Amino acid sequence: MIPTILNNADEEQKAEWLPKAQNLEFIGTYAQTELGHGTNLRSLETTATYDPKSQEFILHSPTTSATKWWPGNLGKVANVTVVVARLIIGGKNYGPHPFFVPIRDPTTHQSLPGIILGDIGPKFGINTVSNGFLIFDNFRIPRRNMFMKNARLEADGTYISPKHAKLAYGTMVYVRATMIRTMSNLLGRAATIAIRYSVIRKQGEIEAGKGEVQIIEYQTQQYRLLPQVARAWAYEFAGRYTRKLYEQFLAGDFEVLPALHGITSGLKAVVTHQTALGIEQCRMACEITGPKIVFF
């Protein structure tokens, strides 16, 4: 939530929302992905239609596939969310824009009228995170709840375009940039566990009569584990570099956005895949006949 406020809120909005987010006066999440949403962000179905008479947006989920699906902590914890929806003004579609949306009563924690939400249920992995779903039924929010650092909307419905069409994608880029260093940390932990085990655990003789050796002495064990250490450091440095690019973007250097978007999109796929394979190699490297290590 905080990166979205920093990247998308104007100064007035930032003064109102940022201190509350930092003081945990509200708990936020990011609701972009929909049940029927693929990789094309412009195909999002949730709409935010501006009503100039009341100076409000009407958030609506027109189909089942428009259900916001998977936001972390939405199921049970979050009471506000950033919603990415198609901006509709006078019947014209202006594409996806971010909106600051309260979803639960701050006192009772019950969902607000016009909102249906809940937990999506058990998942493969990270079951401690209450990933949720969110449906809007003509739910109204004030005009100023549209993030207006980049694109702006005047009270009379006049739309002012952002300097760059993809500035609103900054939150996704931040998550990807952060994810790279997170994968480095996870792979590094697994490699540390497996290598420490390998220098303590002894099994078999390499030379007859010399006694059992540490399993790290076996080349096959080294081939499994040492590349994971190298990958973990490579991902750490890549993560630092992408975070630096993101900070340049946040400071107003919009020229780095195309490179930042491409680098983080590619690295997200490669790094998460290789980290999963690497952790599995570390686990298998501890599968030695005899006493076993409890790996996770």
Would you mind describing this structure in some detail?
The protein is of the alpha+beta class. The protein folds into 2 domains: 2-162, Butyryl-CoA Dehydrogenase, subunit A, domain 2 (Beta Barrel); 171-285, Butyryl-CoA Dehydrogenase, subunit A, domain 3, CATH 1.20.140.10. The protein is 38% helix and 19% strand. It is built from 5 helices and 11 strands; from the N terminus they run H-H-E-E-E-E-E-E-E-E-E-E-E-H-H-H. The protein has helices at 2-8, 11-22, 170-200, 219-250, 257-285, and strands at 28-31, 47-51, 56-60, 68-69, 80-89, 92-102, 115-119, 132-136, 139-142, 152-153, 159-160. Strands 1, 2, 3, 5, 6 and 9 form a 6-stranded mixed β-sheet that branches. A 3-stranded antiparallel β-sheet has the order 4-8-7, with no helix packed on it. A hairpin with a 2-residue loop joins strand 5 and strand 6. Helix 3 packs antiparallel against helix 4, helix 3 runs parallel beside helix 5 (257-285) and helix 4 (219-250) runs antiparallel to helix 5 (257-285). The longest helix has 32 residues, at 219-250. It is elongated, with a radius of gyration of 24 Å. The model is unreliable at 289-296 (pLDDT under 50).
